[in-house]
Amino acid sequence: MFKELPGDSKEKLLWAQIKNSDEKAYEELIRQFYQILYNYGIRLVNDEDYVKDCVQDVFMEIWVRRFTLGDTDFVKYYLLKSLRRRIFREYNKWFSLSSELDEDYNFEVDFSIETELIKQQTSEEQIQKIEQLLNKLPKRQKEAIYLKFYQDLSNEQIAEVLGVNRQSVYNLLYEALRKLRNEWTNDFVSLYALLMLLKYNH
What we know:
Helix content: over 70%
Number of domains: 2
CATH topology of the largest domain: Rna Polymerase Sigma Factor, Chain: A
Oligomer: single chain
Shape: globular
Number of strands: 0
Strand content: under 5%
Order of helices and strands: HHHHHHHHHH
Structural class: mainly alpha
């Protein structure tokens, strides 16, 4: 049943069924989003055990609170936001530190472009170039680009996930794209097309 629905409708149905204590829907939610959450979390904190624990806690909390969950039109955004908040909040407890994880965190990300569609439409040189440029961006710009083009979040959703206002997200994306444009030797349209391919094929 789930496979026959478009993405947004499938997410809404999953969420509604979980709120009605459907265990199969809950298992499907975990199956669909566990790896997405883990991939995001490990970029925030490079500790597998801690990230896995946080991801499990996010899913567990959803089940425990299923009767009081609000509606959401975009489940992935809700989960990413919940995970980021938990990772930052529980960091000092997990590692027995006196200070919380703050803006000194490193967003570790390897922008690896490997999809067949991208390879078919671009040269190896172009792929290597954009990988290098993306990996040179500052951490916050990397994270904004990651959420925008890899996770398909809107600017408003990115702002909620990062805990900043929409203007800050706009500035992060603008500066990232400006830096990419300044160092991109080909047509900027081709660069943006590559980023859009990331959006739909990662």
